[in-house]
Amino acid sequence: MAPFKAFIIEQDENKKVVSGLGTMEASRLDAGEVTLKVHYSSINYKDALAATGAGKIIRRFPCIGGIDMAGEVVESSDGRFKPGDHVIATSFDIGVSHHGGYAEYARVPADWVVPLPDGLDLFEAMALGTAGFTAALGVVRMEDNGLAPHNGPVIVTGATGGVGALAIDMLAQLGYHVVALTGKASETEYLKMLGAAEIKLRAEIDFEKTRPLEAAQWAGAVDNVGGQILHWVLATMKQAGTVASIGNAASFNISTTVFPFILRGVSLLGVDSGYMGFPTRQRVWDRLAGDLKPRHLDAVTRTIDLDELPGAFDAFIRGEVKGRTVVRIGA
Ligand SMILES: CCC(=O)SCCNC(=O)CCNC(=O)[C@H](O)C(C)(C)COP(=O)(O)OP(=O)(O)OC[C@H]1O[C@@H](n2cnc3c(N)ncnc32)[C@H](O)[C@@H]1OP(=O)(O)O
Ligand SMILES: NC(=O)c1ccc[n+]([C@@H]2O[C@H](COP(=O)([O-])OP(=O)(O)OC[C@H]3O[C@@H](n4cnc5c(N)ncnc54)[C@H](O)[C@@H]3O)[C@@H](O)[C@H]2O)c1
User: Fold this and answer.
1) Is the beta carbon of 284 within 6 A of some atom in ligand 2?
2) d(CA 121, CA 70)
3) What is the pTM of this model?
4) Ligand 1 within 6 A of 130 CB?
């Protein structure tokens, strides 16, 4: 295999993260049974933290970025996969301590690879990517803990982001009354188009003044932001409500009380897309290709080429990005 183009994240002599497009020798691919020609990758918040150094994501330098990839198998020493198969590889150490999807080629352990489910093409798989997988995993975790549409409304925080937008779309089509919490008044129509029945603006709520318990409103919650907003979400949950804790876009701290848990039986469910193993991983992807497949995937997705990638990350860190970004590589 000839040297190939890749987005490489390194540390300089002062341990500062530096990243950019470069060329990688095929001999430097990491170990694994399955080699892919990458057709598409995507940008998640975590990719932006990794590429800019804003978060402590990369665990082995240099590392090709990109926690998501979808493409075609070109070599496989594992009986589950053969050349020509269309596959998805996300999560585990990909784009963290194992070269990731922002490259023309990638090699990964077969245990990290999911066959592309019927009902999705490679582009759609990356329009979903880790964001869609995580939103769906959050829904599955809440359903497994008793959430159903007749229990009451479900609130989604960080609503205009990748996980948020896809969670709204999925929950709405399952019949939930979805409430979108956003700081962006200008995106009200967009959020309604995705299926939000109500929009709540962050400016309307004084999160700093949240009491240990507030009037109970939500049967379920998908929280992408953490911090004071998660404290408020917990305090406003209905009896036996379920909260999927997904993100830290606002803060990784939470300061809260035990009252939602001991007086309302609220469950705070951890959602870790990274190391969720099989068969749940396959079950979630199969649902993403079926009843959870968002109806507005095209409307929430923009596509950029690999050459545009270096300039794309800062907007994620500033919280200015809407929906999903697919990176076209070898398609
Ligand atoms: C798609 C998924 C997502 O988007 S999740 C959101 C993106 N992730 C983040 O923002 C987390 C970034 N990580 C950090 O900020 C730091 O590693 C945190 C968690 C604060 C800990 O920092 P610090 O106190 O400096 O310690 P450290 O990095 O040496 O780690 C301490 C022990 O924890 C472990 N750890 C770290 N990161 C992970 C991880 N992602 N998954 C599982 N374990 C993790 C480290 O290996 C370390 O353990 P050990 O001491 O080596 O045994
Ligand atoms: N647990 C997991 O396995 C997992 C998987 C994927 C994403 N995540 C996390 O979920 C979060 C969302 O990921 P994404 O890919 O959708 O990111 P994104 O950048 O597409 O969306 C982030 C959203 O949060 C909002 N936001 C940013 N800063 C904020 C602030 N200070 N207060 C309130 N809202 C703010 C943004 O406006 C945007 O709507 C991130 O924290 C990410 O790390 C976790």
Assistant:
1) no
2) 9
3) 0.97
4) yes
